[in-house]
Amino acid sequence: MSPDQTPSTDEAIAEVEAQLGVLFGRVRTLWKEGAHRVHPDLQPVGYKLLATLVRSGSCSAGALAELLATDKSVISRQVKLMEELGLVVSAPDPNDGRARILTATPEAVVKIDAIRDTNQAQLRSRLSDWTDDDLTRFATLLARLAE
Predict the structure, then answer these.
(1) HTH marR-type domain: from which residue to which, for each copy (predicted)?
(2) CA-CA distance, 102 to 100, in Å (whole number)?
(3) What's the CATH fold of domain 9-146?
């Protein structure tokens, strides 16, 4: 324990860790449910990739892997499946003939947007009694944690 930490600091950090575990479990459940809503054969990691593509716009598989800190082989397998399911199309990158640009299909965009709307409505409901200051502080703290 560092000199500026007390047992209560350690307990608080342990509680933060526990609550993050609960939150991450809920996020994994949302990805699983979202994947199933998009297509019964889509895996949660595919949903995460597809949702990122919809939010961020077209990009290469390498850029998507970097953005999500995911192995390129995972991206490749999921993209192949999503192409087969009609959720993603790929085209040669005009700037790099070796790379391909991935784009969510219009059907995928509609499905992801509908799921995102539902998720945001649920989050809005859970946070409806929070003040603007609470929400701003929470967002700031989350951003600091992600640094």
Answers:
(1) 17-147
(2) 6
(3) Arc Repressor Mutant, subunit A (1.10.10)
